[in-house]
Design a protein that fits this description.
The complex is a heterodimer of chains A (56) and B (250). Chain A is mainly α and 56 residues long. Chain A is built from one helix and no strands. Chain B has 250 residues and is mostly helical. Classes of the chains: A mainly alpha (56), B mainly alpha (250). The interface between A and B is large, with 33 and 44 residues.
């Protein structure tokens, strides 16, 4: 009976740990994607400004 | 007019980076991640079924022995993670390519996660069987050293940032640390300790049902390692691109 508790705890830790790590990873990926989109926009804006300056 | 044409014809570094980002489809997960994720899920369900409904209960250790079917695969993936990290690092030293560094960093992170699970499941098996959460057995000590090597690597890489120097120092660190991998594996044969020896032997250490369960579990954890590797590699790629674009804007 006592062994069952350790077994349940071991499997629960691995499962919950894996899910937590997956959630943490997807949050990091989403965060960097948002950051990338914002910086891309900044770069595009600065490029457009440059092109307009050349045009004038 | 000629000046305008010349300006639009010239490709700036920013434009080049934007094009490379577009080619990589940063918003989408690679198809390999979806396939590996799906296979890992199926494998995990099959492993759980085999562990709890197919494999017979161990006569000596009882149900606690079932921790073994997750403990051994986490050991395998943890050590695999360190070996992959070292191989990628060695190749990086010969041919510096940032993709190899991304593989090394990804393997370091994923391997550390699995090795943490190894130490936790080992302690949870040790308490009811040995009566102690931890003993200074050669195998356990070597596994703990490898865990510290992983943590040291991750801290070092995080502290030094994404530079070629950081990649080179990380490579040297992993080459030194990988010596511990065969020590973990052979320690039960080289030194007398409390940790059980090899379970799959020619004289029948484990019954066939237990061997099948272990093999399925090992395959599942290997798939899971590959799946997490693809995700962390993707993360490394995106972080590098974001860092470069930041540098251009600033």
């Amino acid at each position: 009976m006592q062994g069952s508790i350790y077994l349940v705890i071991a499997y629960a830790i691995v499962w919950l740990g894996l899910f937590a790590y997956l959630a943490f990873l997807s949050m990091r990926i989403r965060g960097v994607q948002t950051e990338l989109a914002a910086v891309e926009e900044l770069v595009r804006e600065s490029q457009e400004k440059k092109e307009n300056n050349y045009g004038n | 007019m000629a000046l305008t044409k010349q300006a639009t014809d010239m490709i700036s570094p920013a434009e080049e980076h934007l094009n490379s980002v577009d080619r990589g489809h940063p918003a989408r997960l690679p198809i390999a991640a979806l396939i590996l994720g799906g296979l890992s899920c199926i494998g995990m369900l099959a492993s759980i079924w085999l562990i709890f409904f197919y494999t017979p209960i161990d006569a000596l250790q009882g149900v606690t022995q079932r921790i073994f079917y997750f403990h051994v695969p986490t050991a395998w993936t943890g050590m695999l993670g360190f070996v992959v990290m070292t191989v990628a690092s060695i190749v990086y030293l010969i041919k510096p390519d940032e993709r190899l560094d991304w593989i090394a960093r990804a393997s370091g992170e994923v391997g550390a996660v699995f090795l943490t699970f190894l130490l936790i499941t080992g302690s949870l098996w040790g308490k009811p069987i040995w009566g102690a959460w931890w003993v200074w057995d050669p195998k356990l000590t070597a596994a703990l050293i490898l865990w510290f090597m992983f943590i040291g690597y991750l801290m070092l890489r995080s502290y030094m940032g994404r530079t070629p120097e950081s990649a080179r120092v990380g490579a040297v660190w992993s080459i030194v640390g990988v010596i511990d991998v065969p020590i973990i594996y052979f320690s039960v044969l080289w030194w007398r300790g409390q940790h059980p020896g090899p379970q799959i032997t020619s004289d029948g250490g484990l019954p066939p049902a237990a061997v099948l369960t272990l093999m399925v579990s090992l395959a599942t954890f290997t798939l899971l390692y590959c799946f997490l590797m693809v995700l962390v590699y993707q993360l490394q790629r995106l972080q590098t691109q974001a860092q470069r674009l930041h540098a251009i804007v600033e």
